[in-house]
Design a protein that fits this description.
- By secondary structure, the protein is mainly α.
- It has one domain.
- The protein is built from 4 helices and no strands.
- The radius of gyration is 11 Å and the shape is globular.
């Protein structure tokens, strides 16, 4: 699986079918690239973008879980 697919798997747990759209928007907004161009060095920036978006839409506990799982991918 690609890095993009791994991130989508995490996001889909909370965002369901909206996950690909959410990922694409975060990538465009924060990275200026598409989600297909994600590299490992982007994980921290994306994790914070995910935290903000998820916290606003479905709550801080979910946002913390998403951020934690995404940040764990750095290892």
């Amino acid at each position: 699986m690609s890095l993009r697919d791994d991130i989508l798997t995490i996001l889909q747990q909370d965002l369901g079918p909206a996950a690909p759209i959410f990922l694409e928007k975060c990538c465009k907004k924060r990275l200026g690239r598409t989600s297909h161009e994600i590299v490992p060095g982007d994980i921290s920036v994306l994790a914070e973008c995910f935290y903000q978006g998820v916290a606003e839409s479905i709550g801080v506990p979910n946002a913390e879980r998403v951020r934690g799982h995404v940040l764990a991918m750095r290892q």
